[in-house]
Amino acid sequence: MTLTSFGPANRIARTPETHPLTWRLRDDAEPVWFDEYVSKDGYAAARKAFADLSQDDIVQTVKDSGLKGRGGAGFPTGVKWGLMPKDESMNIRYLLCNADEMEPNTWKDRMLMEQLPHLLIEGMLISARALKAYRGYIFLRGEYVTAAKHLNRAVEEAKAAGLLGKNILGSGFDFELFVHTGAGRYICGEETALINSLEGRRANPRSKPPFPAAVGVWGKPTCVNNVETLCNVPAIVGNGVDWYKSLAREGSEDHGTKLMGFSGKVKNPGLWELPFGIPARELFEDYAGGMRDGFKLKCWQPGGAGTGFLLPEHLDAQMYAGGIGKVGTRMGTGLAMAVDDKVNMVSLLRNMEEFFARESCGFCTPCRDGLPWSVKLLRALENGQGQQGDIETLLGLVGFLGPGKTFCAHAPGAVEPLGSAIKYFRPEFEAGIAANSGLRPDLARPITVGA
């Protein structure tokens, strides 16, 4: 898989005006270290934020820009920042960067951290200034060894330049930044599970309220933002709200650009910075190059393993939250996966649900018991040993594990692709029911939502 933001040769070259996240990338994919980053206007937005803007001004600018979280949930960033307490006596606050990128088929944050580590640091510096946070942590997926190495070097470079530490830019503002590698749990992508893990506790989501903005890491006000989200902050502060809003395609309700990609049996798998609102077909055909010779597109996921499957006719949907929502699923991380016509959907779903079942924290019963149950049924269908009622039971589990039915969003994301796969490819599931099979003795009747 190539980690690149380049599109087809006939596309407009990356510029600061059109590609705020990726225009500084090197052609050789090597990291952009401090001196080169500064030569490309690096930390100019941070200097502006410290010299010309109050902390409230920064928050309002981000709020007015319409920046939303890029980790998958899409919550408005400025609104989230506004939840931090106004009480000046609460002077111990934290800014956490969620870099625990474990969503299958997602690698966008990895590219930013490996190749543009100073962009993330600048984004966190400005954000910390706005939030009055004196300490920040980059909670990094443990397997991202190269990213950890590059981030740690970049932190030291920023310290040496006086951009981290005490009295930054003579402002009297102090901000320390640390890279913390996680122990390898998908559930740490949930912000309160991340906080528990950072504290050295078991990575279980916390009950909310209280929310992290009131009671976060070590009981102090805390804001958690995704890598890509924070990397948008310097350009918004540096270039202004109107410019940022002008980047998206007509019809998009989301503003700015987004790192989007395509994987699977496509001719040009990769990652590109593109405007919100671009049709999925343009992403698939013009950037990813369509399917490889000998393969046909069967279905696709728009944004990671936790999003529902869509059919080829859905490629005309625009890539933004509302556009993908109109065809029945979520934008997610924006990194799509093409499923070719040689893939058996039962096997694919069994593999996915095994991952989600393994990564459940085990705190709540529907997720802890429901996901392994789905794996058991899918494995039986995959082996041609399914029984009458198995598909209905799977659909019942989709309902029982849906939004609002579990302690966090892990289970709803896990069953969304399962429900859509049965919806569009039910005959493949029915093919796994053994001939002359009866109702499973351990399932006296198929479960139904509300039963």
Structure in words:
- With 451 residues, this protein is an alpha/beta fold.
- The protein folds into 3 domains: 34-245, NADH-ubiquinone oxidoreductase 51kDa subunit (Rossmann fold), CATH 3.40.50.11540; 257-340, Roll (Ubiquitin-like (UB roll)), CATH 3.10.20.600; 345-430, de novo design (two linked rop proteins).
- It is 39% helix and 11% strand.
- The strands form 2 sheets. A 4-stranded parallel β-sheet has the order 3-2-1-4, sandwiched between helices. The protein has a 4-stranded mixed β-sheet with strand order 6-5-8-7, covered by helices on one side.
- Helix 7 links the parallel strand 2 (135-140) and strand 3 (176-181).
